[in-house]
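Q: I have 486 residues here and want to know how they pack in 3D. Can you give me a structure?
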Amino acid sequence: MSSAPVSAHARRWWTLAVLSIASLMLALDATVINIALPRAQVDLGFSAGNRQWLITAYALAFGSLLLLGGRLSDLWGRRISLYVGLSGFAVASAAGGIAKSFTVLVSARAVQGVFGALLAPAALATLTTTFEGPRERARAFSFYGAVTGSGAAIGLLLGGALTQWASWRWCLFINVVFAAMALVGVALFVHEGRSEHHTHLDVLGTVLGSAGLFFVVFGLSHAVTASWTDIFTWGSLVVGGGLLLAFTRWQQQSSHPLLPLRLLLDRTRGGSLAALLITNLGLFGISLLLVFYMQDSLGYSPLRTGVDFSPMVIALAFSAFIASARLLARVGPRPLIPTGMLLSMMGVILFTRLNPAANYFDSVLPGLVLTGLGLGLIVAPAVASATAGVRASDAGAASALVNTTSQIGGSIGAALLNTIAVSATARFVISLPPPVTTRQVTLGVLHGYSVAFWWAAGLFGLGAVLSFGLLESGVPDLDADQVLII
């Protein structure tokens, strides 16, 4: 019996590899479907107006159920949650891959989101409770953070290759391959982990929190296809905000809270969560705009577009390794995260120079590299610091908080920057005297991109100020089973 913990400890790096596969599957799934959308639309015959539901269905289920998924991983145990999450995600992906109708495909995407909401916090909670000691945890989080942070860009590359060389359906089938690999790894290397302090589920908190997040994510997603002034947009946001306020009040008095509010009382954790929120605000928006620019303005194929994002992936992985494996345990997150924000801001500012005569190497590549370097300095240290000093019994809830913050940030970023770009383009074109030429419309589109990129740069600048002000100096206690309260 006593050999089990030793064996699990000795195999902890294999556990990291397994968790990274699961995390990569979830991260790339957020963008791999984007490349497949045009081919899927032709094959299944759905309208352009309905395309966004393939994104929204996943985001609604995933974002609204993350807190529940995190607490279930504390109650059921990490291993069981990983089994259920991976198996369900694989089945949903296979169903989407063989879908013969738009309704089935959207339903499959929603089910993916349900099981993803269980899988994501379980994977991060397992990582949090597997590694001990500042240096070892920093090394583990550097690798995990690099994989997670680069997953969106890898999804563009993989989606382009699969769509161009095989079929758009393989953008879903590929998840079955990843899930099968991860399931074998869980069986071999992941030991059980369960909260011994929480035996009940906060039902009212679950309803309030999940419903609140649902309406918030729905409102943000609806803004992309409608407007920020549409009654369903602001109505959903108001209802969601009210439910989340009621959720917060209830958590203060619940004996078995879904989200222990003590997790939010540490300045470094709060600063790290704010950094992740702002980073995803900028990242998802600029990625969406750059995909449009490369394919529509530069005329690149889906595969070429994915390949051209690879320098950002490489830069992100490099800086994430240096930051977490070499620097985080020495200087803490306060010098790293604001520096990453400033680098990302400078990278995004370079994108504001895009014009019809621009080329990839002069106008896109430098910004991708700088942005990637900055993101690596942000993501891995922020995830490590956001889960530092958390009790094992709260690891699932803390991990769900990290994932929820990132998901909400991504939803807001895509909606916000896309709306800004479209509005700026419309104002530019309307201001021109008729007749408006095709070239002028193209210039208007690029003007819209430029305005949105300036907003994204401003977000990263704000992130630098907030993270520097909120994060505490020094190295945080990266060991679990304790909580730092201010």
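Q: Anything worth noting?
A: Confidence is low (pLDDT under 50) at residues 1-6, 480-486. The chain has 16 helices and no strands.
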